[in-house]
Amino acid sequence: MIASHLLAYFFTELNHDQVQKVDQYLYHMRLSDETLLEIAKRFRKEMEKGLGATTHPTASVKMLPTFVRSTPDGTEHGEFLALDLGGTNFRVLWVRVTDNGLQKVEMENQIYAIPEDIMRGSGTQLFDHIAECLANFMDKLQIKDKKLPLGFTFSFPCIQTKLDESFLVSWTKGFKSSGVDNACYMEEMRHIDMVEGDEGRMCINMEWGAFGDDGALDDIRTEFDQEIDMGSLNPGKQLFEKMISGLYMGELVRLILVKMAKEELLFGGKLSPELLATGHFETKDVSDIEGEKDGIRKAREVLVRLGLDPTQEDCVATHRVCQIVSTRSASLCAATLAAVLRRIKENKGEERLRSTIGVDGSVYKKHPHFAKRLHKTLRRLVPDCDIRFLRSEDGSGKGAAMVTAVAYRLADQHRARQKTLEPLKLSREQLLEVKRRMKVEMERGLSKETHAIAPVKMLPTYVCATPDGTEKGDFLALDLGGTNFRVLLVRVRNGKRRGVEMHNKIYSIPQEVMHGTGDELFDHIVQCIADFLEYMGMKGVSLPLGFTFSFPCQQNSLDESILLKWTKGFKASGCEGEDVVTLLKEAIHRREEFDLDVVAVVNDTVGTMMTCGYEDPHCEVGLIVGTGSNACYMEEMRNVELVEGEEGRMCVNMEWGAFGDNGCLDDLRTEFDAAVDELSLNAGKQRFEKMISGMYLGEIVRNILIDFTKRGLLFRGRISERLKTRGIFETKFLSQIESDCLALLQVRAILHHLGLESTCDDSIIVKEVCTVVARRAAQLCGAGMAAVVDKIRENRGLDTLKVTVGVDGTLYKLHPHFAKIMHETVKDLAPKCDVSFLESEDGSGKGAALITAVACRIREAGQR
Ligand code: ADP
Ligand code: MG
Fold this sequence. Notes:
Elements: H1 2-25, H2 33-51, E1 64-65, E2 78-84, E3 89-98, E4 104-113, H3 116-120, H4 123-141, E5 150-151, E6 166-170, E7 182-188, E8 201-205, H5 223-230, H6 239-244, H7 246-262, H8 273-276, H9 283-291, H10 295-305, H11 312-348, E9 353-360, H12 362-366, H13 370-381, E10 385-391, H14 395-421, H15 428-446, H16 448-451, E11 459-460, E12 473-480, E13 485-493, E14 499-507, H17 511-514, H18 518-535, E15 544-549, E16 553-557, E17 560-563, H19 580-591, E18 597-602, H20 604-615, E19 619-625, E20 629-636, E21 649-653, H21 671-678, H22 687-692, H23 694-710, H24 731-738, H25 744-753, H26 760-795, E22 801-808, H27 810-814, H28 818-829, E23 833-839, H29 843-863
Parallel strand pairs: 2-5, 6-9, 9-10, 12-15, 15-18, 19-22, 22-23
Antiparallel strand pairs: 1-8, 2-3, 3-4, 6-7, 7-8, 11-21, 12-13, 13-14, 16-17, 19-20, 20-21
Helix pairs in contact: 1-11, 2-11, 5-7, 7-9, 7-11, 9-10, 9-11, 10-11, 11-13, 15-26, 18-19, 20-29, 21-23, 23-24, 23-26, 24-26, 25-26, 26-28
C-alpha cells in the first residue's frame, strides 16, 4: 500500500517536471490573455481594412460580402432541395420547414460518392454527375414532378435558425479540410463599401484564415508555424489558418516532437522514420491523446505506432505538447471571435450584447476539450457579451436549405409589400392628371354657376393689395386654426427702421372647448386676449385687430367672414354659417372689459403670402403644409365671379384641401387613405388634405404597417397594442425616420420608443413606408402647385412666369425631403414657370397684422 502511494507520488512529481519542461520549451506557444486581446485588436483592424473600399484590395482578411442579407426569422416554410458539397462525398438533401411557430425541420438525405476521375475532371462532368445524383434522389423520394427551390451554397455551411443575431464558425470547408478555417457574421450594410446600399445587414464571409498574411502575426508565429508554412502548397498564405486549423494540428505536434528529439529532450535523442514523415501524427491522435482518461497510455500507443520506444516521461511530454497546440488553436480562435463580437456590439450600440454563435466542424465537435476552452477564453476576453454556442446539427446541408428558404421568404414578402405600396407611387402621367384636374376644379370654384357644388371653393379674400412698406403702427393679431392658438402684438415700422417686431403668447384650447358651443369657444378666445393685454401691460388699450382664422370661410368683405365648415379637429357648435367677426365681437361685448376694432379676417395662407410679400414683391402665392394643407394666390378680378368688378386682382383662398371631395381623386386613393378618412372627424371631407398634411401622414403609415403586420410581412406578424393606437405614429416621426444621417439603429430606437419592437429588416421596411407616403404627399402638393402657377401664367398670357410662393407649415419646414420633392415636381409639371419658394417666418401671425396694417393704411388714405 505504502509503496504504491509512494510510486504514485513519484510519478506525479515526475509528470510535473516533464510538464514544466515542455511548458518552458513551448513558452512562445502559450498565449496570455493580454496577448490574445492584442491579437483581437489587430484582427479588428484587419476586418476594417477588408471592409473599406480603398483598403480592401490590399487587405489580407477579405471580408467578402455573401449577399445573404438576413438570417432566418422563423417564419420561413416550404420544401427545398439542397446540395452539400462538403467533402469527398456529396449529399443531396430534401428539407421541409414547417412554419407552425416551432419551425420544425424535416430532412431526408442521401450521400453520393464523387469518383476520383470526376473530381479531377472538368466542371461540366462534375455538374453532370451532380444532376444525375439529384435525379436519382428525387426519383427515390417521388418528388420528381415537384419544382423545388434548390440551395447550392456549400460555402455557407450553417445558419442559425430563429435567432436574429448570430454568426457562425465553420470547421469544415473546401473539398478536403477538416480544419477550423473560417467564420462569417452579419455586418451593417453601411460598413460594407463593396456593396451599394446602406440599409440592413449582410452576411460577411471573413475568410479569416488569411489573417497574418501581411505580417500581422509574425511576433507570435513560431519556428514550427514557419516550417508548416514552408512545406505547404501555398507558402506565405493562410497563415492564421495554419496556426489554428485541425488540418495542421497533428503536424504541429509532430514537428515539435522531432525538434525536441533532435535536441535530445525526448526519446533519448532517437528519431524514427515514421516520426520524420509528414502527416503521420494526425489531428485525430491529438484528440485521442487528450481525450483518454489515461491519455499517457494513449500517447504511448501513438508513439509506439510511430516506431518509437517512449519512456513514461516522453509520453507525459507528448501529452503536454498536444494540450499546448490545441489550446493555442482554441485561444487564437477566441481572440478573433472576440474581435467580431466587439464589432457587432459596437454596431448595435448595446450595453450588453447577446449573441449566438453557430458552430460546425469536426475539431470543435470531436476534440474533447476544444469547445470548452474556446468558450472559456472567449468569455474571459469579452466579459460584456452573453454568448451562446450552438452546434449546428448537420450544418452544411441544412444551412444551404435554410439559406434558400430565407431567400424565398424574403423575396415573397418583398413582392407582397411592393404590390401594396405600388398604388402609393404615382407616375408622372398620374401627377399631370392631378394637375389637370386641379385646374378644372379651380375653374369650377371660381365660376358663379358651379361654385355652389364645387369642392374647391376658391374663396374671395378681399385682399387686393400687398404691403408697400409705408405701413406702420401697433396691431393685435389672433391666430386660430393651427396646432396652437396665439395672441400677438405686432409693431410695424416704415422708413429707415422698416420692419416687423412681434410679441406673442400661446394659449391652449382644451378639447372640450374645441368640441363645445361656439359661445364657449369665443369666450375662451376673449379671455386669452384679456390675459395677453394684461401680460403686455396694455390693459384697456384699444388696437386694430387682424384675425387669422384658418378654416374655409365665405367672405363678403375683409372684415366679414362666414365659417363654411370646421376642419382639422375643430367642432364647436353654432358656428358654421355664422360670421366669425360677429361671434368675436359679441364675446368681447359679453366681457365688457375692452373694445377692439376688428379690421381683417384672413386665412393663414393669405397671411403667409402677405408676410413673404413684405420681403419679396414677386410673392403672389401662399402655401401651407402643416397640420392641414391649403393655398391661395392672386387671381384676376375678372375671373373672381363671386365679387363684382373686373379690374385688378384679388387673393383667392383656394381651400384646396377639399380637392377630391366630389370623387375626382378616387382612382388615386388607396384603402389606407379610406381607412384614415373613415376614422377622422370629418369623414369624406378634405380628401386631398388627408393625403398631404401632417395630421394624416403618420396615420397613413400606421395603417400600412398594420396591414403588413396582419399579413405577416412585418414585425414577425405580431400586432402590438401600440400599433393599434390611433395617432401614435406622429408625422414628426416620419421626419425623424427619414432623416438622412440617421442609422437604422436609431430608426429602431424610434420604433422602440413607440413600443414597436423591430428587427433590422423591420426598420428598413418602416423607413420605406415612410418614404413612399411622404413622397406621394410632396408630389401631390407639387402637382396642385403646378396647376396654380400655370394658371397665373395663363391668366396673364405670359410665355414664362417668374413667381414666388410663400410657404409655412412644420411639415414643409422640418421634413427632410418634402420641400425638395415638392419643388422638383412643380418644376417638372410646370416647366414654363420659374418658381421660387420662400419660407415665411410665422406667416399666420405676422400676416394678419400686415393685412391689418395695409387695410389701415388704405382706410386712412381714403379718409384723407
Ligand atoms: P399648423 O398647421 O397647425 O399651423 P404647424 O405648421 O406647426 O401648425 O404644423 C403642425 C403639424 O406639423 C403637426 O400636426 C405635425 O403633424 C407636423 N409636424 C410636427 N413636427 C414635425 C416634424 N418634425 N416633421 C414633420 N412634420 C411635423
Ligand atoms: Mg400654422
